[in-house]
């Protein structure tokens, strides 16, 4: 066990970790940040996506010690300073982009990363980018709509109801 | 003008805020003081005799607290099947014991035969490996293929069941001779053999359970990923562990999807409770995804031969099917109902078919148990019917839209008794078909096809007109059909002294949005703001009773119970108001949140009445109890019958066999719609799963019973770029005639209606490209299968 320190959601934090401790377990068990989920054991589902130094990363594929000192953002750090939902979060609520909520943290983190790279993605670009995030509930329709809306595009016009 | 509150409003979901900010609380998110970790030890062979398990090495490993094997549970009960099905000859189905941990034999890869409990998860995992290495299992030949299973009596999944057959069921046996005669006399008979592919439900949250035991009181608590905590309590207490029901609290907190797989009680739930008691500490278990693939109940897995007798003009005269249905190694709780009463009873579809006979043989194999998965039996029925009708159209050169119109029941025929035992109460199947045709722009299809052709693609259009029986279920009916439980539901409406309301409902929300929708109904009915109403669910200690959420039953059954309880609240409110307003009770009316004396301006608000009930200073105490809280149990009079028409358009690349779903239209009749935003989301999700079944998902075991598709690397889940935007409509509503809300249920529709629409579209595309020798392709219609079919 070693103490691993990093910045999470703007705060410097540290917790014990073994060499084999994954970032997702460090966040969930070490820091109690259970918003980041584990949906698989093969790095396929994307439920665990967080941002590491601004990039979307599957936190189940990264050892905590390897990102010591990094700047990590999780779903718990996505709301506005006043506690209201951030733009992507609000779009997911407005467009019913979540049902059971289990894939949602990963979806929001991936979508935010997409929009940071590509502020006005096309429908096809959104679908392609979210290929690494599995949702079993929504059929993706409203997730894609939510991302379009979060980018300021007219989601209703693009997605027939 | 759409409403912005109450019934019919697209109220945004209140639960979203916690899920979007990472503050949902799923079972695995809980961390309890002193908790220990369980890891299951699972069979790596499909079929074997357990020769010996040497636990010593594992027990001496660091952090290990206990090891359990099948021996520890051999004297407790088995996990039962909920429905008793009789064979055609009247003999009851074979019911092998399903133990908490396998004892004597392991019967599928992933069958748990031991569990290790340790201080940390890593320690438990390490010791589980050591235990597996110290176990001797004599491997037996695996029974995987259903036909082989029934053909070879020498090889048995359960030693006491000679032919691996659970039952041989006929529905309705008395119809058989008439069906045979009608088939013989029919001018044309279409025959189709098809497979309804085996699926893994794959809720994104893996199963998890935490057991606690409180020695001071002898109470247990189980926190678990369940769609129906009360049923789990009943099964754990009354059948498996012999704990009095009042001594076990079952909590299903936020649950990350179910789709059927979390209806059932699983052995891990009993294990964590037993371990918690032995160790005096909370014991937790969470499945890895690989374990979910190996041990969650799978879905579908039917092999069917369907015959359809018809006139040359396409009037359906008779339908006859023979199905082999896989139940896997053990009977899961609903596994015997799914291929029978959720499948055979739907085999007339939405059509006027005079003669129908269904035969289902359910077969034990060395594979994971198979049970209800979104739609459960009804997708299998719909797929068989809609595919064979499509084949009929091709054989006779008929238009599939025209043929549906000829055969669909008409609105004047309701209530309609089908030849397979259901009474459809209401519907307008022509209306949903017309709506789908309009929304899908069927008229413009040929132009789109020509445009696709320019790009070298074959475009096809497929139709399915589907019906289901849901709102599960009228107890008197399911009792006749073999159910061992009642399928009513319950609700308590508690009006607090300050006028806010808590509703304790037996429905369980694991994505459906009950926390938002149920308050809309309460608000509408009581004339108070939605935000004054809170829903409590998923905790046997807080809610009166409930059978949970599946079978599109939440609103139709639990919602109706809530509606009944609200009626009682209003009735009592009228009594209180009559006293306070010094009027006769019969003169009190209730509207817009006010109790008024008819014809006067004398009134009391709902809040004033609630306050008076709890501060009964001016109150008819001699005749009325104080307080304002009512409970209702609701048992539906009939199933509900949602129905609709789905049209799928695909483009096929004939060079590669790749199929793209380019458009999908769903026109449904769900009866009254409480929240369109949520209803449409349910359809999207169901259609997404249906497209997944049709195009990519498949569960594959090799001949040794090894699961080849045990991870997301091998099991193709539909992803965002596999599906289009869907067009959905629910405007052609014929309200359910027998429940107070007029609702029919919408949760399973998409998964039921869509697979045949997709496959019909693929066949249509291939025919348009001249590949008319292709009459059928089994799901999933993967590039490989499509290419093979084209080039056969
Ligand atoms: S948990 Fe990380 S990709 Fe599935
Ligand atoms: S909302 Fe349930 S998995 Fe996406």
Short description:
Chain A is α+β, with helices and mostly antiparallel strands. Chain A is built from six helices and five strands, in the order ββαβββααααα.
Give short descriptive properties of this protein.
heterodimer, A: 161 residues, alpha+beta, Ubiquitin-like (UB roll), DNA polymerase, domain 1, five-stranded mixed beta sheet, 16% strand, elongated, B: 792 residues, Aldehyde Oxidoreductase, domain 3, Aldehyde Oxidoreductase, domain 4, seven-stranded mixed beta sheet, 28 strands, binds FE2/S2 (inorganic) cluster
Structure, explained:
The complex is a heterodimer of chains A (161) and B (792). Chain A is of the alpha+beta class and 161 residues long. Chain A has two domains: 2-77, Beta-grasp domain (Ubiquitin-like (UB roll), Roll), CATH 3.10.20.30; 87-156, DNA polymerase, domain 1 (Orthogonal Bundle). Chain A has helices at residues 23-30, 87-94, 104-117, 123-129, 141-150, 155-158, and strands spanning 2-8, 11-17, 49-52, 55-58, 71-73. Chain A has a five-stranded mixed sheet, with helices on both faces. In chain A, helix 2 packs across helix 5 (141-150). The longest helix of chain A is centred in the C-terminal third of the chain and has 14 residues, at 104-117. The mean pLDDT of chain A is 96. Chain B has 792 residues and is of the alpha+beta class. Chain B has three domains: 18-140 and 204-257 and 262-295, Aldehyde Oxidoreductase, domain 3; 302-473 and 638-790, Aldehyde Oxidoreductase, domain 4 (2-Layer Sandwich); 488-634, Aldehyde oxidase/xanthine dehydrogenase, molybdopterin binding domain (Aldehyde Oxidoreductase, domain 4, 2-Layer Sandwich). In chain B, strand 20, helix 14 and strand 21 form a beta-alpha-beta unit. In chain B, helix 17 (676-695) packs across helix 18 (749-768). Chain B is globular. The relative contact order of chain B is 0.12. The model of chain B has no long low-confidence stretch (mean pLDDT 97). The chains are: A alpha+beta (161), B alpha+beta (792). The interface between A and B is large, with 62 and 60 residues. The structure holds FE2/S2 (inorganic) cluster (FES) (2 copies).
């Amino acid at each position: 066990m070693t103490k691993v320190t990093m910045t999470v959601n703007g705060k410097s934090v540290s917790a014990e970790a073994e060499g084999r401790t994954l970032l997702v377990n460090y966040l969930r068990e070490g820091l109690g940040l259970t918003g980041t989920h584990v949906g698989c054991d093969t790095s396929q589902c994307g439920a665990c996506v967080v941002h590491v130094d601004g990039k979307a990363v599957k936190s189940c594929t990264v050892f905590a010690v390897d990102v010591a000192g990094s700047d990590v953002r999780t779903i718990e750090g996505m709301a506005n300073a006043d506690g209201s939902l951030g733009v992507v979060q609000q779009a997911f609520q407005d467009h019913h982009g979540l049902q059971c909520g289990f894939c949602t943290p990963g979806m929001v983190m991936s979508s935010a990363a997409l929009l940071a790279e590509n502020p006005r993605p096309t429908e096809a670009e959104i679908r392609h980018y979210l290929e690494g995030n599995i949702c079993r509930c929504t059929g993706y329709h409203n997730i894609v709509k939510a991302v379009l809306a979060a980018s300021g595009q007219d989601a209703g016009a693009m997605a027939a109801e | 003008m759409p409403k912005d509150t109450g019934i019919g409003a697209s109220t945004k979901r209140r639960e979203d805020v916690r899920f979007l900010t990472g503050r949902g609380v799923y079972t695995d998110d809980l961390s309890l003081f002193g908790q220990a970790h369980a890891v299951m030890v699972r069979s790596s062979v499909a079929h074997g005799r357990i020769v010996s398990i040497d636990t010593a090495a594992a027990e001496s490993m660091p952090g290990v607290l206990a090891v359990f094997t099948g021996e520890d549970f051999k004297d407790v009960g088995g996990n039962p099947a909920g429905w008793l099905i009789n064979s055609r000859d009247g003999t009851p189905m074979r019911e092998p014991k399903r133990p908490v941990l396998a004892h004597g034999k392991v019967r599928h890869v992933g069958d748990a035969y031991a569990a290790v409990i340790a201080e940390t998860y890593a320690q438990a995992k390490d010791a589980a490996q050591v235990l597996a290495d110290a176990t001797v299992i004599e491997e037996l030949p695996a029974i995987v293929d259903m036909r082989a299973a029934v053909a070879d009596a020498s090889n048995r999944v359960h030693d006491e069941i000679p032919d691996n057959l659970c039952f041989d069921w006929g529905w309705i046996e008395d119809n058989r001779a008439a069906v045979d005669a009608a088939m013989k006399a029919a001018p044309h008979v279409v025959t189709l053999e098809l497979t309804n592919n085996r699926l893994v439900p794959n809720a994104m949250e893996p199963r998890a359970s935490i057991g606690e035991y409180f020695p001071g009181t002898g109470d247990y608590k189980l926190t678990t990923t369940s769609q129906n905590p009360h049923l789990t309590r009943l099964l754990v207490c009354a059948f498996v562990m012999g704990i009095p029901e009042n001594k076990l609290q079952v909590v299903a907190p936020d649950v990350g999807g179910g789709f059927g797989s979390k209806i059932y009680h699983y052995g891990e739930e009993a294990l964590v409770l037993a371990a918690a008691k032995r160790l005096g500490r909370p014991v937790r278990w969470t499945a890895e995804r690989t374990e979910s693939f190996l041990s969650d109940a799978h879905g579908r897995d039917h092999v069917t031969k369907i015959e359809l007798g018809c006139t040359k003009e396409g009037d359906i005269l008779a339908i006859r099917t023979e199905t082999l249905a896989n139940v896997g190694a053990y009977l899961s709780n609903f596994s015997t109902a799914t291929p029978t009463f959720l499948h055979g009873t739907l085999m007339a579809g939405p059509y006027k078919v005079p003669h129908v006979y269904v035969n289902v043989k359910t077969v034990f194999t060395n594979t994971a148990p198979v049970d209800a998965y979104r739609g459960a039996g009804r997708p299998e029925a719909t797929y068989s019917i809609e595919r064979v009708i499509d084949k009929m159209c091709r054989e006779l050169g008929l238009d599939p839209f025209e043929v549906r119109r000829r055969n669909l029941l008409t609105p004047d025929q309701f209530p309609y008794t089908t030849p397979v035992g259901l009474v459809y109460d209401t519907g307008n199947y022509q209306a949903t078909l017309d709506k789908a045709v309009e929304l899908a722009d069927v008229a413009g299809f040929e132009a789109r096809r020509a445009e696709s052709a320019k790009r070298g693609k074959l475009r096809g259009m497929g139709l399915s007109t589907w019906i289901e029986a849901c709102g599960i279920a009228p107890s008197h009916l399911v009792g006749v059909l073999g159910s061992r439980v009642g399928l009513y539901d319950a609700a308590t409406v508690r009006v607090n002294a300050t006028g806010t309301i808590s509703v304790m409902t037996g429905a369980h929300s694991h994505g459906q949005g009950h926390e938002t929708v149920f308050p809309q109904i309460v608000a509408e009915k009581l004339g108070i703001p939605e935000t004054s109403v809170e829903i409590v669910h998923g905790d046997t200690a807080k809610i009166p009773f409930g059978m949970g959420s599946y079978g599109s039953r939440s609103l139709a059954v639990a919602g109706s119970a809530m509606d009944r309880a609200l009626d009682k609240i209003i009735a009592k409110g009228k009594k209180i108001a009559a006293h306070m307003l010094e009027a006769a009770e019969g003169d009190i009316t209730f509207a817009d949140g006010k109790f008024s004396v008819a014809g006067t301006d004398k009134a009391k608000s709902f809040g004033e009445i609630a306050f008076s009930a709890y501060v009964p200073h001016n109150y008819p105490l001699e005749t009325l109890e104080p307080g304002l809280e009512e409970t209702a149990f609701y048992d539906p009079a009939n199933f509900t019958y949602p129905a609709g028409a789905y049209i799928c358009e695909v483009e096929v690349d004939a060079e590669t066999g790749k199929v793209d779903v380019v458009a999908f239209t769903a026109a449904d009749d769900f009866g009254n719609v409480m929240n369109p935003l949520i209803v449409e989301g349910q359809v999207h999700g169901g259609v997404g799963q249906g497209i997944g079944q049709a195009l990519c998902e498949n569960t594959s075991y090799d001949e040794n019973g090894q699961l080849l598709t045990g991870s997301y690397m091998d099991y193709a889940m539909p992803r965002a770029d596999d599906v289009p935007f869907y067009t959905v409509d629910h405007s052609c509503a014929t309200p359910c005639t027998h429940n107070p809300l007029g609702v029919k249920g919408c949760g399973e529709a998409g998964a039921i209606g869509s697979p045949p629409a997709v496959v019909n579209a693929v066949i249509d595309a291939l025919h348009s490209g001249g590949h008319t020798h292709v009459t059928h392709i089994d799901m999933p219609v993967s590039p490989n299968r499509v290419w093979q079919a084209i080039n056969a």
